[in-house]
Amino acid sequence: MTAVTGLTRVLSVVGARPNFVKLAAVAHALRRRADVDHIVVHTGQHYDSAMSGSFFGDLDIAPPTTNLEVGSDTHAKQTAAAMQRLEPVLERVAPDWVLVYGDVNSTVAAALVAVKLGLKVAHVEAGLRSRDRTMPEEHNRVVTDHLADLLFAPSRDAIITLRAEGIAADRIAFVGNVMIDTLIRLRPAARALGTARRLGLDEGGYVLVTLHRPGNVDDPDVLRALCEALAGLARTRPVVFPAHPRTRARLEAPGLAHRLGGVRLLDPVPYLEMLDLTESAALVLTDSGGVQEETTFLGIPCLTVRPNTERPVTVTEGSNQLVNATPEAILAAASNGVRRHVTQIERWDGRAGERIVAVLCDGARFA
Prior knowledge:
alpha/beta, Rossmann fold, seven-stranded parallel sheet, six-stranded parallel sheet, 16 helices, 13 strands, globular, disordered N terminus
């Protein structure tokens, strides 16, 4: 591919469902620039329609220029395959900037390949830390941040973390949260769908569940306890559970499925429908990072089934609460102290994508 004279060439690498939501904010901001050539490479880490294909239409962004079709595998094999398949693409395109998003295996794979080719890397959603070294994503975050030339921080606490790790201030830009850009832009379309109503659910009258972290769904004892907790919640109000494919597989194991009681299992839900379900819920139970941010912005009570979070601002300033993966802890938290709490977190204002583009293309500074 031959470079076009006068254009800044930006190549975004995405691989999984949360990346697409973040990409959408940047892609929409770049679309308004006549002096930018934006190329999107999908590693194929998430590859079925429910987890990948339908998202591009929902988010109103063009399909990827290239799909590397890496698929599922162990962390090592998946990361290695992404690196092997991405290297010739980066050599051919020779972008001015390689943008990586979030904390999945595709993120760290792209950062490693790019820096070894001498290409500049920018990390969208930099500086998040759970301090939990058992989480694969934590290693991806740390490595990517220390490789990247530019670090786009979503919150003030992320900047403090990066500076404490010795990263120079001139590599960090405080741009805000790109997830919230996409939420704000598509919120009216999501609400117009009436997803909760179509499913026979009353506004503000049900619990929405998303669980996929290995620590919650791969250990049969933990998953059994979570099923009992959900069944307990379902005795007092509807519980809706759009299940990640690997979570669904674990739930179908003998001795688990019947423990869910009246919980309503759904297939993975497209972005717009999921956003509407989130805003219409009385309570969200999750282990997802993005859901913690969305519920905080919307003011929806959220119980995060984890001992820690890489998004502490959602707890200190938002509507999020950490809870242990036991029926007693979850049921107690659900009945005590969960309330709607709308807060305005600095620069979660729908303009993070614009700030990123201003830094990349105009040399702007956001501290």
